[in-house]
Amino acid sequence: MSDCMSNEPASLARQIKELLPAVRELRHELHRHPELGYEETGTAERVLAFLGELPGARVETGLAGTGIKVVFGADKPGPAVGIRADMDALPIEERSGVPWASTIPGKMHACGHDGHTAMLAGAGRILARNADRLEGPVCLVFQPAEEGGGGGRKLCEAGVLDDPPVAAMYGLHNNLPDGRGKAGTLAYTEGPAMAGTGTFDIEIRAEGGHAAMPHRTVDPVYCGACLVEQLQGLVARSLNPVQPGVVSVTRFCAGSAYNIIPEKALLQGTFRALEEPVLAWLREAIEERARGVAAAHGAAVSVRCETGYPPVVNDAVAGAVFREIVGDLGMGERLVEVAPNMGGEDFAFYGQRVPAFFYFLPSCPEGVEEVPSCHHPAFDFNDDLLPLGMRLHLATALRFAGKWRA
Q1: CA 259 to CA 341: how far, in whole Å?
Q2: Dihedral sign, CA of 386, 391, 394, 395?
Q3: How far is CA 215 from CA 144, 207, 266, 296, in A?
Q4: Is the separation of the CB atoms in 149 and 59 below 8 Å?
Q5: In-domain check, residue 272
Q6: Which helix (H) or strand (E) holds 60?
């Protein structure tokens, strides 16, 4: 990967290169000390220490508990742009074997949020030196609790987009969901890009008994097995084939011994869709199917079925501005359009309020076809992406206002 973009000022390229060792060390420090959603106190302290003094910038802390917002050029005429990084880790035991592996048992940065945070912090340090070049306000948002905690929603509710009013929000994610794609490319999706999510818990209650006499029982295991088949069939046989959706039963708990038919069985899982109406339909269909199957077997059932994150939908204008910025940097040939994926992302909450655009930085080094995917215990962020991410954040910050006005 080239150290310098063709249309990037040499001063910025030099500043990125000079700061890169410190950004890499910040990334490794964050990786050594992972914190779960809404626990990112140490992470926030490390980010603030790294940013240091920011003359002329406004720094807000404690947003949604541990979030940070840094505003550069608040007095500029605008429009304002927001750039977001997520800070939280996952409850996974690390098996990466890297020298900077997690020092906290049962917790690790298995999704690259340490890299996201370090890239944005590095861009912030450089923006502080170049604030006179800004055409509009820039809001850097360090967000807690992306991994299921809905930190993006809480930040939006706390007014993170309001002062100054953010015209468009940008975010990135390292790696593609399948672990493929060459480092140095930029992957994006037009329109619906990532799925809205939901979860369900279904408890089947019946009359257990001796396994040798099933005819004298109502078997919740058999009822649950039938329900699994029915739930998987919702997408295969009840959803329009051109409307993507997923229903996955991921947990089935029942029983205590070889010769006992239990009284209860518990099914848990997730459902996902790229469109809000399909997500709502899946929720209703899961509840209806669970009650119908239970009734057919003479069992009682309790159902909790809730939607979580909305779909990530990339705004057309925000995307066009980003692609134009990338083109100005001489990187247009690196842009790769990819199909939507059914992973969830709470960046979606920003997109419900303002135009937003979310893209990916694939991670595979040269000669490697696939790296461990996100949420895998052997995952580690590719440090080669750090300068690329900083460049893209800086270009977005410095060029957005003029292009958005145009």
Answers
A1: 43
A2: negative
A3: 53, 11, 22, 15
A4: no
A5: yes
A6: strand 58-63
CA angle 57, 59, 65 (to 5 degrees): 165
Q: For residue 170, which of 16, 346, 319 has the smallest C-alpha distance?
A: 319
Instruction: Residue 83: give its domain's CATH number.
Output: 3.40.630.10
Q: How many CB atoms sit inside 10 A of residue 92's CB?
A: 18
| Residue 271, domain extent | 196-307
Same domain, 335 and 380: yes
Contacts of 241 (CB under 8 A, 6+ apart): none
Q: How many domains, the chain?
A: 2
Per-residue pLDDT of the chain (406 residues; tens, 9 = 90+): 444 444 566 789 999 999 999 999 999 999 999 999 999 999 999 999 999 999 999 999 999 999 999 999 999 998 999 999 999 999 999 999 999 999 999 999 999 999 999 999 999 999 999 999 999 999 999 999 999 999 999 999 999 999 999 999 999 999 988 888 899 999 999 999 999 999 999 999 999 999 999 999 999 999 999 999 999 999 999 999 999 999 999 999 999 999 999 999 999 999 999 999 999 999 999 999 999 999 999 999 999 999 999 999 999 999 999 999 999 999 999 999 999 999 999 999 999 999 999 999 999 998 888 889 999 999 999 999 999 999 999 999 999 999 999 8
The reported pTM is 0.93
What residues form DSSP beta bridges with 199?
270, 306
97 is a domain residue: yes
